[in-house]
Amino acid sequence: MGLPEELVVQFRGVALARLERIESSWAQMLVALSEESSSILHREIHTLKGESRVLGFTDVNLVCHKLEDLVEVARARGYAVDEDFDLTVNMALRFMGMLVRKRVGSQLGGIDLPGFIRQIDQILTEARPELAARTRTGNMLPLSKPSASTRVPSILRERLAPIAVDAFIEYASAKGNRRNRLRAAWHGLREMIGLQRALVGAGQLTKHKSGALSLARELGKQLEVVFEPGTAEVTTEVLAAIDVAVLHLVRNAVDHGIESPAGREIAGKPGLGKVRIRGGMRDEGFVLTVSDDGRGIQFDRVRTRAVELGMVTRAAADTLDRDRLVDLMCQSGFSTRTEANEVSGRGVGLDAVRAGIVELGGTLTAKSADGEGTTWTITIPVPQLTVHGYVVRASGVPFPLVIDGSWKAITGGPAPATALDVASSLGIGTASTGSPFRFSRGTQEFALLCERPPTPGQVRRLIAAPASALGEIVAIDSIEALMLRPDRI
Amino acid sequence: MAEPADVPSIRELDFEAEVHTGDPTELRLAGSADIVIADSLEALVGKLHEALEASNAREIVIDMRNLEFMNASAFNALVSWLGLVHEMPPERRYQFRFRSNPDILWQRRSLRTLSCFATDLITVES
User: Fold this and answer.
1) Is A259 helix (H, G, I), strand (E, B) or coil?
2) Contact B116 A94 (CB under 8 A)
3) Domain boundary among A356, A380, A404
4) N or C terminus: which one in chain A shows less Cβ crowding within 10 Å?
């Protein structure tokens, strides 16, 4: 027996509203990552999947399942997806809309559901084979996962960035088969050196809270973990460095810092030790602290151990202040433990933590008070991932340009004597039509030959290129554009 | 061929959409279609659908051979168009014949996916 028509009508309305919310949160995530949009996106898809299963819309349920896979792949890539991928997600939403509207039990007619699923599977396989093949566990993957096999070190990335900008211009102005070939080259470079976005927050770091509690149990210590890691849009490299840092600092705090319940009682402290993880965006970047109320760093032991390990002489060790001693603790091979235990003491923790942070231009510092505890502070500058600018369609240029928001579009006033023909300057054609539009920044001014007035908007940085490059590559939704540096033309 | 007065062409930036009436009527798309022209394209498609419906057309040819790029926002106009035809009584629905460029990868892929929406209404030539 079929479902009551009333229930089906109600489901249709609810499902279409969910599809709308999925579409708008998907579009939002392509511009800027946010916990809120991410959570709406996943929740709505998941709920729709469940509701469609319960109400017998098995076709909707199947596409929903595939959509969930697509979003999971996008999530692992920090939502930096190309046009084909965006188109597939949009088509999946429209396809579901069509399935929701059709009458329950009616024949599929010309709808080729298996064919559609095959198309999605193909995109999934191409986008990230290892993710597509992953068995779903119901757990969220980290919001973005850097692919170690294809990423190149930051110093090389900086050198390759201007080449990638040129590759983009060649690809985006090519036609036909040549465009397909250059597109593959550009995408390869983008994959290797592009800014990969990630969210740092509770979702990504919560494993360290349970890790700390489990370690405390193992060591017979009583522990409370206060977990307020904040949330911010960062790069995958920053997320990876923070992830490693929190892992090591929390383990160190539980192993070295927090005393046993008996030890705490002798020290006049409550038996329950406390580790606090707090983070958030500040002017200087993402700042995360790991504090404990344990015994504090035993600086005398650090001095003695540094001498034993031959890192400094006894005389020099006596002159070292606390900051310098912390610095020694972060050097390769240092450990106050004379025998490595199962938890830490192998001397591979803090130096790895600091190296990862310093490589990104960050710092790792510690403040400690005897008997009161230690606070480690990680500060990592985070590149600006979303910027304001003007979207410009320059005459003769087949892809959008962006003028960054440090420039202001001037309206009115006399027509400029000369205007920049970007198509000619880039060697990709000539501007045969268009009107000049002016921009100013302080005392500087220039005009561009454009097809339409510039429109302000928010763009996502894809390739961060040094100041010597023609510009950077950005994305407006999923459309790639050149953020031009007018002074480099 | 004359252009129907109520279905204006689009010539914006490097994108062109022209309607050529005849038997069958043809919509020629060329250049690069992105979010900037998505609304204009949706409006054109709506008007063209009305004209085709009014004339009891049996087929529309959509020539994409010179269409270099079309993003999701613009492509959605085509998906919505299919939705309009789906809403018509089966006997009055008209066919979509796409002419595609085999050298353009996204066309092959997108049209294959689009045809899954209505295999009985869509044919793709390359």
Assistant:
1) coil
2) no
3) A380
4) N
For an interface test with A, give the residue of B71, B91, B123 to mutate (most A CBs within 10 A). B71
How do residues A182-198 score in pLDDT, each as one tens digit?
887 888 888 888 888 88
Check whether residue A281 and residue A294 sit in a common domain: yes
A87 shares contact with chain B (CB less than 8 Å) = yes
A369 with A230, same domain?
yes
- Any idea what the CATH number is for the domain that residue B103 is in? 3.30.750.24
User: A374 and A230 in one domain?
Assistant: yes
What are B28-50's pLDDT values in tens digits?
999 888 766 788 899 999 999 99
Q: Which of B34, B68, B112, B121 to mutate to test the interface with A (most CBs of A within 10 A)?
A: B34
Find the domain containing B97 and state its range: 10-125
Tell me the pLDDT tens digit for each residue of B96-112: 999 999 888 888 889 99
| Total domains, chain B | 1
End position of a domain, from candidates A380, A397, A427? A380
CATH number at residue A43: 1.20.120.160
Phi-psi map region of A477: left, alpha, beta (phi>0 left; psi -120 to 50 alpha)? left
Which residues of chain A are under the pLDDT cut of 50?
A: 130-149, 339-340, 342-348
Distance in angstroms (rounded) separating the CA atoms of residues A331 and A343: 19
CA distance to partner chain B, nearest, from residue A354 (Å): 43
User: Looking at the predicted complex, does its ipTM rise above 0.85?
Assistant: yes
Asked if A349 and A375 sit in the same domain, the reply is yes
Q: Is residue A146 part of a domain?
A: no
The number of beta carbons lying within 10 Å of the beta carbon of residue A458 is 15
Helix/strand number for chain A, H first, E second: 16, 15
**Domain housing A435:** 386-488
CA atoms within 13 A on the CB side of A375: 12
pTM above 0.80, yes or no: no
The DSSP element (H or E) to which A273 belongs, if any, is strand A272-282
Chain B residues with CB under 8 Å of A87 CB are: 71-72, 75, 106, 110, 113
Q: Are residues A87 and A173 in the same domain?
A: no
Nearest in space to A255 (alpha carbons), one of A369, A337, A375: A337
Decide if B39 touches A, using CB distance below 8 A.
no
B106/A90 Cβ within 8 A: no
Is residue B5 in some structural domain?
no
Cβ atoms A257, A294 nearer than 8 A: yes
